Request: fold
Amino acid sequence: MTRILAAGDLFIRAAHLRRSLEQALDGRAVEIRELEFPWPDAPFGRVAEVDEASGTEDQLIEALQGVTAIATQLAPLTERVLAESPDLRLIAVSRGGPTNVNLEAARAHGVMVANVPGRNGVSTAEMTVGLSLALLRRIPLSHNTLLSHEWRGEFYRYGEVGGEIAGSTIGLLGAGAVGAHVARVFAAMGADVVVFDPYLPAGVLDGVVRRVDTVEEVFRAADLVSVHARLTPETEHLVDAERLAMMRPGSRLVNAARGGLVDYDAVADAIESGHLAGAAFDVYPEEPVDFGHRIFALAAAGHDIVLTPHIAGASRETTDRAADGVAEEIRRYLAGEPLLHPLVEFAQGAAR
Reply:
């Protein structure tokens, strides 16, 4: 009998993975084992050579004995785990960027790997729009005044009121699964959407956005810049002091992608000087965050800064898409069909 490990956590529960596996594998004789990691109650982190993982190598090795395929989000699939799990043939990881999987080790050990790109695209896009609206309309600040039992009039003063999406220029750095959805929403709201994405295929988003050839053109044009690039050595600090200085005074910045894409010290400087009107962040250079960073002090002092704890992708629909996505990859593998989203793939029979 084929054994499958549903290695969940407190967001994508083992029970969610089991349900999707049972639906996808209806009628096939399989044994589904369950394991659950403590994230997000306990932060994920580095385990051996992989990042953003939860749990330990030892508990995963024990659970993988006799297992053909694993469905997971955060299991630490390291060189050691792969070496000591001789029956494993497929890793189905429910993330777009599976940094918790040692892909080279998987390739060396003949283990196939598939992922679920775009699982949280809609959720993150909607959160980005929400952060932008909260920032533009000063929702958190005005909300807090009511909690303090204050009815303050300055939010209706001309110099204090926020702005609208309609008629503004929104700049997007990246137009993948998240950025493309954000672009369509903002365009539907009446914004002029400017996009820099050298990987965006010709014709995609035509009639929705204006494409530009350089990052700098986005900063010079936009009233609000939203970051949607993947973090790589080339994109680290894509938003830096020099580019922030290119923005018009009173512009705003939103980042719900990755903390490393933005120089947060430069943003603090720009807000403190008054050059930026405000910023909204769901991601940070360090997570859990360094509460000593000036961003938090500026927010506490009443600057227009909206902060959330990396929850943009956290929706129940994201959980469903993730669980269904890994279950479909496992179904395909067991049926001898090509994987939908292979990261490591071998010809049938060539895996270990």
